[in-house]
Every structure is written in structure tokens, then in C-alpha cells.
Structure prediction request, 94 residues.
Amino acid sequence: MAKFIIISRLTDEGAKTLKRTPDRLKIVNKELETMGVKVLEQFAVLGNFDFLNIVEADDVNSISRAVVELASRGSIKTETYSAIPIDDFIESLK
Prediction:
């Protein structure tokens, strides 16, 4: 399983939805699991982004499908990064 970092920013519509239904965050996490993406950690953050998620997926295709699905709803904008365990990264440099 590969790890990824998804940082996201709510749209105006997403902020309205979240205010009405704060538990929506947990519902989306369950939806992600049905798409093959497991949320390992999730944080609300202050600054340029609203949320930071550390997730696990089988491959880049799985994570790509999931973030496109989420973005198509119009409630968030995301940026996704591959997260390489530091020991794996070091080993790849040898």
C-alpha cells in the first residue's frame, strides 16, 4: 500500500455543507474506503488549507479516482502528494 498526503480547501458550498452537517467529514472518510482509500490520520488545519489527510491506497490510480470523485462534487479543492517512508527514500538513493 502506498501512502499519500491530501491537503484540501473547502469551497463556499463545502463550508455551508460542513456547517450544516459537521459529521459529513466522517461520512466522506467511509466513502473513501469504498473507493480503496483508507484515511490513516486527518487534521483540521489553520492557514491556506482547511484539512490535511494522510491516506493509504493500493496505487496512484486508486487515489486519483478518489480525489477526482471528491473534486467533482464541488465542495473541496485538493492537492495530493506521494508520501515515501524515509527509509525507503534513503534506500532508493543507494
